[in-house]
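Run log // design_07
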């Protein structure tokens, strides 16, 4: 595609993803008070952290509900924007290869939600770790805005971390990334997994970082294996496709 067509395609995909987020946010608005907010507060109360959620302004409850609804919209609309990522990366695939979009969404959405679920599972341990630093008789004054940012940052970080290996596979199916390049960079990938976990987990404890980084490494290994299998399939079906991998002095199959 020319550059302008790429930009137009990007605009179209972003618009559709935004519509999905808005629709999810509308649902989140109506579910906020009865379901979402109690679920978000539950991890803080699991270990009796002696904390209370506080609003720091008159319109604080409305602001928090609006922001929280948008976060819910991002998570709830994951099938829509995950597909839009795939559709933007792979516009040049054949009709047969585009069928893999079903597999991409089928794998990507559960992995994203699995990351969110794992983050929610470790939240009580995170609050337990933080509570150990509170002195006896002290009360943690926790503003609702900072608490919501803390929770949602952790949930989305885990979700995106679990989605990245699927994007590697999508790039491979689009012919933009070879499995041998992934394997050659495994040391860098392992380092980046721990760096990502260290930066995007909002707590200083090593346990949360390791819980995020290790599944990312395992998923990267699985993604590399899938890429290898796909490269072998392509080489078998199109033996002339990969001449660029030959040395200058090597003979081609011709």
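design_07 sequence
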């Amino acid at each position: 595609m020319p550059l302008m067509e790429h930009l137009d395609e990007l605009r179209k995909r972003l618009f559709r993803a935004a519509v999905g987020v808005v629709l999810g946010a509308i649902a989140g608005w109506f579910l906020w008070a009865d379901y979402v907010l109690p679920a978000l507060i539950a991890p803080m109360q699991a270990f009796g952290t002696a904390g209370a959620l506080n609003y720091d302004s008159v319109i604080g409850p409305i602001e928090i509900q609006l922001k929280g609804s948008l976060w819910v919209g991002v998570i709830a609309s994951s099938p829509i924007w995950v597909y839009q990522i795939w559709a933007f990366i792979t516009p040049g695939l054949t009709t047969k290869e585009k069928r893999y979009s079903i597999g991409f969404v089928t794998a990507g959405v559960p992995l994203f939600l699995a990351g969110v679920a794992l983050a929610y599972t470790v939240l009580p341990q995170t609050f337990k770790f933080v509570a150990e630093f509170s002195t006896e008789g002290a009360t943690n004054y926790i503003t609702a805005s900072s608490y919501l940012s803390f929770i949602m940052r952790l949930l989305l970080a885990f979700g995106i971390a679990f989605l990245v290996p699927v994007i590697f596979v999508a790039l491979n199916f689009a012919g933009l990334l070879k499995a041998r390049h992934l394997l050659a960079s495994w040391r860098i990938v392992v380092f980046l997994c721990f760096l990502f976990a260290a930066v995007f987990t909002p707590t200083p404890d090593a346990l949360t970082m390791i819980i995020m980084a290790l599944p990312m490494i395992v998923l990267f290994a699985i993604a590399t294996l899938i890429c290898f299998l796909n490269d072998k399939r392509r080489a078998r079906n199109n033996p002339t496709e990969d001449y660029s991998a030959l040395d200058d002095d090597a003979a081609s199959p011709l």
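The beta strands are 51-54, 140-143.
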